[in-house]
Specification:
Chain B: This is MBL fold metallo-hydrolase. Chain B: It holds the Pfam family ODP. The complex is a heterodimer of chains A (290) and B (274). By secondary structure, chain A is of the alpha/beta class. In chain A, 24% of the residues lie in helices and 22% in strands. Chain A is built from 8 helices and 13 strands. Helices cover 23% and strands 24% of the residues of chain B. Chain B is built from 7 helices and 13 strands. Chain B has a 7-stranded mixed β-sheet with strand order 1-2-3-4-5-6-7. A 6-stranded mixed β-sheet of chain B has the order 8-9-10-12-13-11, with helices on one face. The chains are: A alpha/beta (290), B alpha/beta (274).
């Protein structure tokens, strides 16, 4: 596996930037080439530049640190990094935490910092536990709200929402890739190709109609427990959250930035339902429990 | 308290420390106070030594101290990771500085999200250029360097997880399952043995399980995780359960009690206990 950074950093809304890398599965027997090109998997970060403060979402992994570090510097353009918001304490999302704190001495870790005292001893003086619904004023109208994640990767998973741009940062939820990489009959190849890395969903060739079936692998891999549940209560929680925090942008950790969420999210939810438990519904519980 | 805890004489030692609970551990229900052991285990066989997980970074120096007391220096050391999460990998770099790690292993998987490959890139670990070995998909289910340690891929998990079973001591290394106990004091006994007061109730078990496996309340009634766990226990004689968190459960009476409670919960996780 190698990494690719093409197209990033990229501003996706005023003051909001898409950073990060793609894993490139070159000459990997698990993931065949498509049209002579290797397939990619996003590992994304996002930066919010308020007029007073800046905030980075997730840290990426060690293999991508050099690239991400350069991207952060490019986007900050001489400014300080003030806040680091890890969406959850999983390796791919938090492994560069100490590196970021070492490089940016003003930076403080914010959000759900349970577990971090165990995992990053020596950094606790740089951590501020913030409960769900805490708001961080970044200046210039940029306000970042910490939200409970209805779809969690780990118990300490959290989402974030920037109010002025209506951007939702949803960690491992709503991940998908471009269908042009799909190989018929092989459901493990739903990745995008090299020149599509930084495209948003409204820029993808073929549009959102081709998202069907191409998020299934990511969902099965990243949200394994979906296969055991009825996902409809989760969808209801998501819908309720969307009503209170309506997103114009949904920015996942894995997958393209979603600029048209009202079109895309239902398609991904249909994929979630397709990989979720299929042997019963909530109504069947009544029969079992009776 | 700071010494290794002998779980099976001469064969299995529990290593690690405890964490004071003040709503600072995400897999412990809110409001629970006391202390929770954070565990990794040293398994000493005739020809080899296997360290199952490496504990949390906050305990890395303690784990090294404990290993220095019990680690045979004339046998190669394998580190086997049950999960790539920080409560399993936190001590790896420190351990590598003090002990030559001959092999770093995890179970088999084809999952770009499982994070195991990235473990070798952690600061301190990268310096040794150690490679992570995986069981090949469809290949042996044994830990590669052991003749008695079996790996099991469970149905009940959050992130990619591998359980381990020691056929000699009949010890089940359950990773983040069965980690539902806490202690009242920092120096409390780290094992739960027959005759000890039972610290678990159906309510406390459900609370701990929902704190960790948040999706359980939305489970469908087909009961796959319950059936899978039943199969694991039916196919093996289990006399000790050694989890990543909480007390080590010892003795058939203790094991059966918590197994029964766990199955009851997994079969009806949406119901509050009667």
């Amino acid at each position: 596996m190698t990494i690719d950074t093409s197209g990033r950093p990229r501003q996706i809304a005023p003051g909001i930037h898409h950073l990060g890398i793609c894993h490139v599965y070159l000459n990997d027997v698990r993931f065949p080439m498509v049209g002579g090109k290797p397939i990619h998997l996003h590992l994304s970060n996002y930066m919010i530049l308020g007029t007073e403060k800046t905030l980075l979402i997730d840290t990426g992994e060690p293999a991508g640190w050099e690239a991400l570090s350069a991207q952060i510097d490019q986007v900050l353009n001489g400014r300080e990094l003030n806040y680091l918001f890890p969406t959850h304490p999983e390796f791919l999302h938090s492994a560069n935490l100490t590196r970021i704190l070492d490089k940016y001495p003003e930076c403080r870790v914010v959000g759900d910092v349970r577990d971090y005292e165990m995992y990053f001893p020596g950094c606790t003086d740089r951590m501020d536990a913030m409960p769900i619904r805490s708001e961080i004023d970044l200046g210039g109208g940029y306000e970042f709200v910490i939200l409970e994640a209805p779809i969690k990767d780990l118990p300490a998973s959290v989402w974030g929402y920037e109010k002025s741009q209506q951007a939702l940062f949803c960690a491992d939820a709503f991940s998908f890739a471009h269908i042009n990489a799909s190989v018929p009959g092989q459901d493990m190849t739903e990745y995008h190709l090299a020149d599509e890395c930084s495209l948003t969903t409204d820029e993808l060739p073929g549009g959102v109609g081709q998202i069907r079936d191409n998020s299934a692998f990511i969902l099965r891999a990243a949200l394994y427990w979906l296969r055991y549940i009825d996902p409809n209560p989760l969808f209801a929680k998501v819908e309720k959250l969307f009503q209170e925090f309506p997103p114009k942008i949904v920015a996942p950790a894995h997958g393209h930035v979603i600029i048209n969420p009202r079109e895309v999210v239902p398609i991904i939810e249909a994929e979630m339902e397709s990989v979720s438990g299929t042997s019963g519904t909530m109504a069947d519980r009544v029969k079992v429990s009776a | 308290m700071n010494d290794p805890t002998e779980i099976v004489p001469g064969r299995i030692y529990r290593l690690g420390g405890t964490v004071a609970l003040h709503d600072n551990v995400s897999w412990v229900p809110a409001g629970v106070r006391g202390y929770q052991p954070q565990n990794c285990y040293l398994v000493i066989e005739d020809e080899t030594v296997t360290l199952i997980d490496t504990g949390i970074a906050a305990h890395r120096d303690l784990i090294v101290e404990q290993m220095l007391k019990v680690m045979p220096r004339d046998k190669p050391l394998t580190v086997f990771l049950t999960r790539s999460e920080y409560d399993c990998i936190g001590g790896l770099a420190a351990i590598q500085q003090h002990f030559p790690v001959a092999h770093l292993l995890a179970g088999g998987s084809v999952n770009p999200f499982d994070g195991f490959a990235g473990v070798t890139e952690l600061e301190g670990t990268w310096d040794s250029r150690i490679q992570l070995g995986r069981n090949p998909v469809g290949g042996s289910s044994m830990v590669d360097t052991s003749k008695d340690l079996e790996t099991i891929t469970p149905a009940l998990r959050l992130l990619v997880t591998f359980w381990v079973y020691d056929r000699v001591s009949k010890t089940f290394f359950s990773s983040d399952l069965f980690g539902h106990t806490v202690t009242a004091t920092a120096d409390a006994k780290l094992t739960l043995d027959p005759g000890d007061p039972d610290p678990t109730t159906p309510e406390s078990l459900r609370a701990h399980m929902l704190a960790k496996f948040h999706w359980l309340a939305q489970s469908l009634p087909d009961g796959v995780p319950a059936r899978d766990l039943k199969t694991v226990f039916a196919d093996r004689e289990i006399e000790n359960i050694a989890p990543s968190h909480g007390l080590v459960l010892r003795g058939k009476e203790v094991i059966q009690r918590d197994f029964d409670r766990m199955i009851t919960l997994l079969e009806h996780p949406w119901e509050m206990p009667a």
